[in-house]
Amino acid sequence: MTFTKAQDVINYLYSLPKLHEKADLSYIKKVLTFLDNPQDKVKTVHVTGTNGKGSTSYYLSSLLQKAGQKTGLFVSPYVFEFNERIQLNGQNISDQNLVEIANQIELILAKIRRENPAFSLVTFEYEVVMAFLYFAREKCDYAVIEVGIGGEHDKTNVIMPEVSVITTVGLDHEKIIGPTLQDIAREKSGVIKKNRPVIIGNVPKEVLPIIQQKAQEENAPLIQLGKDFKIIPNESLTLKTKSQKLSFLPKPIVEGYDVGVAVEAFSMLGLPLSQNNIIDSINRTVVPGRYQVLQNNPLIVLDGAHNIQAVQNLLNYAHCEQKRRQGQVRILIMMMKDKDIAQVFDLFHATDEVYLTTIDYPRAAKKKDFPQWIQEKYQYMSDWQAAYQNLKQKSQTNDILLVTGSFYLVGNILQMETKNAGSRY
């Protein structure tokens, strides 16, 4: 197969299977071996976590670029376009490079299929191979690699990173890497490698011993939030470590944790960067669709929170703002059918105005997919554009409007607002 257009590549990727029968790394390792192991030709930082791994990856990428490093970034999901998944120095991979890289992989797959006609990569494997191949071809100094799901069995776990990161451990993807929090912690600790430092963020105390034990087994130096570095939210966001104290522009506390983890991970790499440049890099970083403020009066925040931990964090932030502003919290939420819908809706306050919506996507929950008590309690608006515009107009200066539940909804609204503004957000 030969591709000529980027959209053909993207369509093909989404036509591939999502999972193999066995959750091992043999398929991706075979392809990477045929490609001369591009993942070993670039220094990497490996980032996992139930929440915060995307933000941490963006902050790390910015710090590396500020330090003069040619930096690759592999993240998911995307907000504006697929090409965001694979970035070089903050720029999305071009359509031309996407096509070239995919065609290179197709040549290798054709060779493998001569011996094994049924051989195939799943979607995420193909994307990971594309990223490693691109970063090696462009001779990156470093690449920040965000895990897809989990850690030990994730398709990105074919690298020997300079530093590993575990941002948080919470309940999400329980059917794949659970069902318990302990199972999830064990899976995520799979990114810890022998003699390589690991930075951990806001990890629950009950699973901390699992990660500590894995680090000890691998002789991996462990740097821990709350013990080795602290985040202090005041007028500004302050990071305090054993060797320095840095103050950034104000951010929600959970974003602050991600900042702290990113700065600590960067410090492990031994690259020279002044305190002023670290502060400037963090302050200038925009993480798409994560606590992204569209406007302040009323406060409109877009965040792709789609699991219990992330939604709870977002609501904590909104209710703190509510006390300060003395306004109304409104929430426009869309969720996927396979998420913990009932548990998420248990988190809302009685005074929150919550509105349900959906988008044109197979996994998106429609009204009938919500539990009966949710259908009866909250208003459902099938047209997400009309719902958003309605709530935006309804919100007064001191009110707060959250758009959440899915990066798909957040991405759609960001694109709509960008189009309305006549320029890219």
From TrEMBL:
MF terms in GO: ATP binding; dihydrofolate synthase activity; metal ion binding; tetrahydrofolylpolyglutamate synthase activity
Pfam families with a match to the protein in the record: Mur_ligase_C, Mur_ligase_M
Every Mur ligase C-terminal domain range: 289-407
Catalytic activity: (6S)-5,6,7,8-tetrahydrofolyl-(gamma-L-Glu)(n) + L-glutamate + ATP = (6S)-5,6,7,8-tetrahydrofolyl-(gamma-L-Glu)(n+1) + ADP + phosphate + H(+)
Known EC number: 6.3.2.17
NCBIfam families the UniProt entry points to: folC
Protein name listed in UniProt: tetrahydrofolate synthase
Domain Mur ligase central span(s) in chain numbering: 131-248
Domain of life of the source: Bacteria
Gene Ontology CC terms, in alphabetical order: cytoplasm
Cofactor dependency: Mg(2+)
Protein species of origin: Lactobacillus kimbladii
UniProt cross-references to PANTHER family, sorted A to Z: DIHYDROFOLATE SYNTHETASE-RELATED, FOLYLPOLYGLUTAMATE SYNTHASE-RELATED
Family membership: Belongs to the folylpolyglutamate synthase family.
Keyword list, A-Z: ATP-binding, Ligase, Magnesium, Metal-binding, Nucleotide-binding
Xref: InterPro entries: Folylpolyglutamate_synth, Folylpolyglutamate_synth_CS, Mur-like_cat_sf, Mur_ligase_C, Mur_ligase_C_dom_sf, Mur_ligase_cen
Keyword Ligase on entry: yes
